[in-house]
Amino acid sequence: MYCIKFTLIPASVISFFxxxxxxxxxxxxxxxxxxxxxxxxxxxxxxxxxxATPELLRAGAPLIENAHQAVVALSAGNTREHSEVQYQLLxxxxxxxxxxxxxxxxxxxxxxxxxxxADLRRAIDRLELHFRATxxxxxxxxxxxxxxxxxxxxxxNSQLHGVGVENDRVVFFGDSITDNWRLNxxxxxxxxxxxxxSGQITSQMLARMQADVIDLRPxxxxxxxxxxxxxxxxxxxxxxxxxxxxxSLALAHNIIPVLSSILPVNDYYxxxxxxxxxxxxxxxxxxxxxxxxxxxxxxxxxxRYLDYHSKMIDTAGQLGISWTKDGLxxxxxxxxxxxxLVQASITSALKGQKKKRKKKMRxxx
Length: 365
Hints:
Blueprint: H1 11-23, H2 32-50, H3 54-74, H4 83-102, H5 110-142, H6 154-160, E1 170-174, H7 176-179, H8 183-186, E2 192-196, H9 202-207, H10 209-212, E3 220-224, H11 227-231, H12 236-252, E4 256-260, H13 284-301, E5 304-306, H14 332-364
Parallel strand pairs: 1-2, 1-3, 3-4, 4-5
Helix pairs in contact: 1-2, 1-5, 2-3, 2-4, 2-5, 3-4, 4-5, 12-13
């Protein structure tokens, strides 16, 4: 755990250090070194004001700690690859400013505190410009004109059209956790199709429904998405709307949707890699809240809920270390647990579907 040490630094000194960052760049996208310097200065400005105001020290400590953890992660590797962590730093810094504005200031250091807060606001504004530029640059680089990556499975989909539909095809639909799942290894001989794409959020999954699900005419659709939405700060209502639309589209095309819970995460691998501090972007409370909504949604709509979360959480409330390779993605043991759970759900769904088919045939005669 990071131990916060405070030293009151004159506002003039801090202004000197950050002036180069704030005004030296003509474009919005900072270089790696300038970006890392900006991250550190935001963290230091948050720290320096707290020491002079006991109430701010108490109220702002979690925000400062979160900012420190984000800076540690951002200091490792290419800063342009960490837009999610940039967003976390930006969010915590803005909340800190709101707290600081609401708390009475010490008269002894009032001028320096106000100056530091003004510098912090400017630094945060600069970070927001850099963050937005990072997202635009990353999206152009990775996705180009194909934002939802519809081209990923075009060839494979064309090979499946009209083939083996009578064999109760199942589509696994999601992000990297699905993408990395070697279905042939865990479900040999089963007509299961993997349509996961690493890094995707639920809006991208929704955009792929026609091409990667509906056109394949599966009997069952296993949906696992939302963890990347949480990491990117997508509003919870947006995630819920996307998941409900995915399920509704499946039902409208006579596909049985199975909505899966989001997996827990852990921070056990932080010592090996600062990027593996997973709970900073995916808090247990956010995961639990979204999973509760998914469960309630399934109950209200009469849909199937697949609970991975409760089966893969340890006594500390995190993803069991034996079931993951990095605190976020399952390893082989983790996938074994998931395979057993999803197979039971698929079997139940197919059994129910066969009963409906028999009843329909009886009506015909």
